[in-house]
Amino acid sequence: MRIVAKNLTYTYNPKSPFASQALKGVDIVIEEGEFFGIIGHTGSGKSTFVQHLNALIKLTGGSLTVGDYDLSDKKCKFLELRSKVGMVFQYPEYQLFAETVEKDVMFGLKNFHKGMAEEEMKAAVKEAIGRVDLDYEDVKDKSPFELSGGQRRRVAIAGVIVTRPEILILDEPAAGLDPLGKKEIMQLLHAIHGSWCKTVVIVSHDMDEIAENCTRAAVFSEGKVVMEDTPAEIFKRSDELISLGLDIPVTAKCARVMKERGIEIDTDFTCDDFIAKTLALWKGQGGGNAQ
Asked: E strands along 19-84, which residues?
């Protein structure tokens, strides 16, 4: 499912003294199969945009198509769309509510597949729980609130992917996690991307996360997309990002310092590539022979 937005606009509280234009003509294309990042400071319009993708916010201006679904068409099958475009909000573990893990994960499935037999539902739930690296037999009858924070987040993700959405959208998927937790959740998302969901879209303020994981990204500012490219090309424009009030990856900060000292490195800003290129340059200049 390909996502295409053209001149997408949206205003909160229209025709009131509190009107606020969140989207001011967004043009963006997200291809099927991408691991796509969305960057922007608070109020840039990024969250408003992603909530349009499964019609949590209804289209009011411009055009938006998600696969074969035209969201400007009043006859659009919105329930069907939402089963194919899964949304995981920030800190999703706080939205768990059912008595058991199994019931929580099954909730979305019951909404979208009302005619599915109970045994089919249980099989789908078991598979989804296993897909997020939890032991079904161990957790299915437990209250979600008995689990650790990381486990609860995995349960919340299982509750979204249980319908096998073609597109999975996550708002700050690693927020609040320690470095190991962040690494594990991103590894999980790549595993899901490879086997369950064709396209993954993450909204993140963590530029290292974007550099390390995304095939392409878009930068939102004041309701518009101001950059759309690979992370490598976007982070080459570090001066522009900083002028927009955004951070840059640690590797980009190091590259800037080295450039100021007359040393330029052609890197994609992932840690592995940056370290390899730096070591190669150092050895090429005789550093490898230093005692």
From this structure: 20-30, 35-39, 61-66, 69-70
